[in-house]
Amino acid sequence: MTTKTSRISGFHKLLPEQRLAKVAEAVGLEPSAISHLSNTGNLDISVADSMIENVIGTMNIPLGVATNMLVDGEDVLVPMATEESSVVAAVCNAAKQCRSTGGFFTAMSGSQMIAQVQLVGVSNPEFARLQILEHKEKIKALCDETDPVLLKHGGGYRDIEVRILQGRTGPMVITHLIVDTRDAMGANAVNSMAEAVAPFIAQWTGGRTYLRILSNLADHRLARARATWSLEEIGGVDVRDGMLAAYDFADIDPYRAATHNKGVMNGISSVVLATGNDTRAVEAGAHAYAARSGQYRALTQWEVDGQGNLTGTIELPLAVGLIGGATRSHPTAQIALKILGVTTAERLARTIAAVGLAQNFAALKALATTGIQKGHMALHAKNIAVMAGAVGDEVGQVAKELVAAGKVRVDVAESILKGLRD
Ligand code: MEV
């Protein structure tokens, strides 16, 4: 019997090992589970403890490297952190197939973030809007004073936009502070600026400010990538047309678009995570951008060029940074950046966009031809073999037989393993 309660007084003040002991006691963890969690691998427990609250351990995710990526004429090795099989292989394959046409060509709209200040309680929102716009210079000064380091690095306030929204609770006047955050993702910088500016907006207009927070729909920070896949590399007109039909489907149907974009994000989130950036921020921005027309649509576009080749494009907000947060504190993220060889947040974002496009190409090609399960199952079979107890060379042998049998299941793997060992 365990004494399970979620009330553990002073839990946050304990050391990680003390917290682990408390949890183990509360839920009856075996000594093997305790020693498993005590091994924090390549992230020191003290670093983990400084990153989030109530730490008891760490969780490792495989880190793979995608090869073959040619981005703006340069070869790049791309570290990807993901628990999903096929994701890294998909990027390698797609990247290989567009090398003959020069690989990926990328661009970025800028490195500006938006912070929103919500003003309510004004009966004349149009009037309030102009009152705010009149104070552009003061707002600029307030923003730039808030982050002199950003200013020193060429960033800082760029502009404001003021929008009027009609809510159920009445009109709101929303000020957007547009701030260049350079190599920082910039959440802390712009949130602080919004908090500094808000009391002045309230004072100028006689209204009341509530929310002061960045928008993850970072549409002043759009990363773009394009590539061409020759008919020969794709495998002919039928495959190409199947891929175009798959794209068409995603662009008109939100049910399909969600899965299409999930595939895009398989690639994007893996690099975002490997570099210690905020996966949820990027995902929220990507999906909001996909819905900007009022309908949720595909994040990529596929067309045919004059020679019949398949051309792909992607454009999405990519708020990632090189400084601050886990990118700075997580040693693996630092090494991932070194592997990538990027020295600016812009270069990182552009590479990530290319990975998203590559991922989508591979998924559409698989879906338009053999289906996704064949490739998936080959890799998944290895996981199943390990789950069945296979070790060393047995893993490959069991996986191969599972795929050949067309039944990638643990019970089948167990019986194959038993046969091998007998
Ligand atoms: C699986 O993680 C991703 C795919 O479903 C993407 C897609 O359907 O385009 C294969």
Explain what the structure shows.
The protein has 422 residues and is α+β, with helices and mostly antiparallel strands. It is 51% helix and 19% strand. It folds into four domains: 16-51, no CATH class; 63-109 and 222-369, 3-hydroxy-3-methylglutaryl-coenzyme A Reductase, Chain A, domain 2 (Alpha-Beta Complex); 112-215, Hydroxymethylglutaryl-CoA reductase, class I/II, NAD/NADP-binding domain (Alpha-Beta Plaits, 2-Layer Sandwich), CATH 3.30.70; 375-421, Helicase, Ruva Protein, domain 3, CATH 1.10.8. The chain has a four-stranded antiparallel sheet. A four-stranded antiparallel sheet has the order 5-6-4-7. The mean pLDDT is 96. (R)-mevalonate is lined by residues 84, 259-260, 262-263, 266, 363, 367, 372.
